[in-house]
Amino acid sequence: MPRDDINWTPTPGTSTDEPRQVRRILRLFKPYRARLAVVGLLVGASSLVTVATPFLLKETLDVAIPEGRTGLLSLLALGMILSAVLTGVFGVLQTLISTTVGQRVMHDLRTAVYGRLQRMSLAFFTRTRTGEVQSRIANDIGGMQATVTSTATSLVSNLTSVVATIVAMLALDWRLTVVSLLLLPAFVWISRRVGNERKKITTQRQKQMAAMAATVTESLSVSGILLGRTMGRSDSLTRSFSDESEQLVDLEVRSNMAGRWRMAVISIVMAAMPAVIYWTAGLALQTGGPEISIGTIVAFVSLQQGLFRPAVSLLSTGVQIQTSLALFQRIFEYLDLPIDITEREEPVHLDHVKGEVRFENVEFRYDGDDKGHPVLDGIDVIVPAGGSLAVVGPTGAGKSTLGYLVPRLYDVTGGRLTLDGVDVRDLDFDTLARSVGVVSQETYLFHASVADNLRFAKPDATDEELREAAKAAQIHDHIASLPDGYDTVVGERGHRFSGGEKQRLAIARTILRDPPVLILDEATSALDTRTEHAVQQAIDALSANRTTITIAHRLSTIRGADRIVVLDGGRVAEQGTHEELLGLDGRYAALVRRDARLEPTR
Length: 602
Hints:
alpha/beta; ABC transporter transmembrane region fold; Rossmann fold; 4-stranded antiparallel beta sheet; 21 helices; about 10% strand; disordered N terminus
């Protein structure tokens, strides 16, 4: 399977600068400021309640128990129990709100990426593997879930806890606090190094996951399975997938083990800190230093242990954020992709389209191909409203590209193309979608029922409208003969139907859409003669009273066209009626003779 992944170059609006990227991530949470403020209040309240417990413990050990004050002891014990209850309640509410906000942000990201891709030109998808696109939406955004839903809240919660705990420790004894925090800068530096290391590995891992997703999408589709089985490549594909999976295993292990020993050292040191506190307090007493009460030592150790959990979690959160920056960067690359085909700020809307199409000195080049020959050059053709134009020529002459310019699947790079006298680039997308229908050689059907596939063109179509469209497309009788009729599921890409049946379903779908301009892109070229006859009858019904541009492979299907254009090397070599072109005895006549020789073999 091919492994040529697209090489992404961030656009000028995209920055890999971390501070700017972090600010951009924070803007994702802007619509949820109010909920996040509530989370902040809950975090603050929870931290204060947690910090209060060691002070209650100090009073219990230094006052209530030594002095035998049973009432005070009961109140202090009740306070500690209440503190635990409030901490639990605040934690549940905090998790509920933060998870809701995180999932809404995930939803916004998925929708934004999907919407961006829907606006990309056809050229983008011709050079991008489907699995790569799916991986960005599923794996990359999915990989950010922990960061978006919990890490941000964990960061605020742990930071608040650390600050509150340090303040409380200073209030108890500043000398013990200094001892406890001596190694903190080193810990921060270590976690930063670990985060950078994991970020690099994560970038490699996500690329490998995208490659695997592309392999699965291509090789485990119906077409991929057919190709693999008939070519005897099933074992080879399995080995190839195994190799890619093996690379992913290595990256996953490296990602999980990156910095583990360093983080383990931090955990060991922080776990040993209570012993250091006891040693320091004992040494101070023996050397004649100020007396430290048992309650103060126990309360301080309790705070220090309370500092241990959020501090380690805070360092780990920093590592997770560094890792997630790699995922955000991949998503932002998609969000920053330039959209080639856009709508004008004040586009022209046409309520009624007659269907006149004009190509005025049209030129077209693919992106980045400024030095080579244009795909189309100097095309001047007029198709009157309700008229028919056939476009013929050798493979690579630019026939399909010419047809795709009308619905703006591509944009002209020179000259202009008009619909009813209006440049198609000035029309709004709704007018174009209503006005131009395309039936291509490769019919795409969704894995859904026949009725759902037809209603994709007209969601509010009645059952009677479906039947009438199917009858016009010469496919109703076949659908009616199926056990489930119009509720029959067509299978992936319509593989439960033959090529001719799929084409007629596509034609029925376009009839429902009822566009005044129709583009037929070699709609019968892959069919046998008998099936072609049935499909041609459906096409004739579809083409009636519409402006029709037919990209033809078999010349027998376009002899009745009002005008025939012969393309060669992206230029119009000949044009005229069938009889006129035969009289010229040029390229068209040669194509007709070739077609006649091949016809008996079909």
